[in-house]
Amino acid sequence: MSSHALHSSLLRLPIMHILRAAGFHSTRPATLDTLVDLASRYLTLLATTTASHALVNHNDLIPTVTDVCMALQDVGAFKPQRGTMEEQCIGEEDMRGVDGFLEWLRGDGNAEIRRIAGLAGTDGEVVDIEAGGEREDFLTALKKKHSKTGEESRYQGTVLGKDGDEKSVRIEGGRVESIEAWEARLRERGRILKPTSVRQLSSAPISSVSSPLSEI
Description:
This protein is mainly α and 216 residues long. The chain is 55% helix and 0% strand. The protein has eight helices and no strands. Helix 1 (3-21) crosses helix 6 and helix 2 (29-58) crosses helix 3 (65-74). Residues 208-216 have low confidence and may be disordered.
């Protein structure tokens, strides 16, 4: 499975949960694929825009909160919002877009989505959204459900887990023990043999071949 197909498959589940929270009980596969494609394009645009702002602002691809806010403003998530020059002229930062986005995120319209995502508690339970990092999302709960030991070692080295430790491949039955050493040995042999072959060609005597003209 290619990386694009894997990422699309992983994105299908959140899109289905969003449709479920919106009140849809079923959908056609073509409709679901279209929504997944739109969501992936939007997330890609948001990620690339954030990386561009991070590179321009502090010459680093590690984004900050400011970079993310500027990217959200560029893709139209923060509106209404004044421009940078207008804010400098007024001397006050326009926070209407950020406040409106947070109000929409914490509003009653997204209560069902927060419940499905695990950010809302049961009846009578008060959950702070800002402290939602302590709660497990549905993907982490699903991984623990399908793991017998409850550890993430099963998914280590995959896109769902931590990066695996790089191990060197050892070659048995020869003088060279690793691929890196074998590659270095080939390069060294090529560097030595090339001047030797050129020297042999230059020092080789010209072969005397009898010409048919000499026999005339």
